Design the sequence.
């Protein structure tokens, strides 16, 4: 069930050479916007990206990201991350999880040659994300993702850039992962990470078919049912916050290329469904 946690960490890190279906055109008959599902980490073999991304980039006047990517590498953001995602002097991981979960975490890390002591000052939200990142690296996913790639290209081209939420807002969403059920969150995160090698091929197949319903069913439906509060704060609430901003952009003659995590696309509360409900025509590219 918590496979969702690993996926939200990078919003579907998959091999994408065949996945042109991750870009959509949104139009009201006069104005146009492109939506691109971002993959925050890729393998070197995933480049060059699918042609649909390049076409949307070239047709756009500006880029829109989830957040200010430049600020994510600032010392101030690093300080705030440590503030929210680590214990500092206020305790350790063992204060929030059971002996059973600590034993499972230690065994999982020992298999990867990593001492558990490195994790003791991390809060469960950060531990879960770090476990996912370690596993993605083990699977060869080590390169910059779609959003960072187009940020770099856009900077070189002098293309205007906007974002939908501040880094601080995004950080607070991340910090809420597992809030109030830290032990269950971390135990499921461990199980989730160990299922990733089996999970990715099925996700790849959904992408080859452009099957967003299949993606939702596989990665999100059960999680939404069992952990509605976390699902709401990480996806639905943010989608709802973004939709008014996207509608404002659709009222201008400029064409935007909006790059957000792929898990924000599917489902009845997803960006695609919400924009369709607003009367826009959406076409998969």
Sequence:
């Amino acid at each position: 069930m918590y496979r969702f946690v690993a996926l939200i960490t990078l919003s579907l890190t998959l091999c994408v050479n065949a996945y042109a279906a991750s870009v959509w055109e949104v139009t009201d008959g006069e104005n146009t916007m492109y939506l691109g599902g971002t993959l925050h980490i890729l393998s070197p073999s995933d480049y060059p990206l699918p042609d649909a991304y390049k076409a949307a980039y070239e047709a756009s006047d500006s880029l829109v990201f989830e957040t200010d990517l430049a600020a994510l590498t600032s010392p101030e953001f690093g300080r705030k991350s440590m503030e929210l995602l680590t214990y500092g002097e206020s305790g350790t991981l063992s204060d929030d999880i059971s002996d059973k979960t600590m034993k499972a975490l230690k065994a999982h890390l020992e298999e990867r040659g990593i001492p558990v002591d490195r994790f003791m000052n991390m809060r469960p939200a950060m531990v879960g994300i770090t476990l996912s990142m370690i596993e993605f690296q083990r699977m060869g996913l080590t390169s910059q993702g779609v959003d960072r790639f187009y940020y770099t290209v856009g900077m070189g081209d002098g293309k205007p850039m906007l974002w939908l939420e501040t880094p601080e807002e995004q950080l607070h969403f991340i910090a809420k992962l597992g809030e109030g059920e830290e032990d269950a969150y971390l135990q499921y995160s461990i199980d989730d990470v160990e299922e990733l090698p089996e999970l990715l091929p099925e996700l790849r197949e959904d992408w080859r078919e452009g099957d967003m319903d299949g993606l939702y069913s596989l990665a999100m439906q059960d999680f939404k049912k069992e952990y509605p509060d976390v699902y709401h704060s990480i996806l639905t609430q943010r989608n709802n916050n973004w939709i008014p901003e996207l509608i404002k952009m659709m009222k201008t003659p400029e064409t935007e290329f909006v790059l957000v995590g792929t898990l924000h696309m599917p489902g009845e509360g997803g960006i695609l469904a919400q924009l369709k409900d607003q009367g826009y025509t959406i076409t998969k590219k």
Notes: The radius of gyration is 19 Å. Residues 10-20 have pLDDT under 50 and may be disordered.
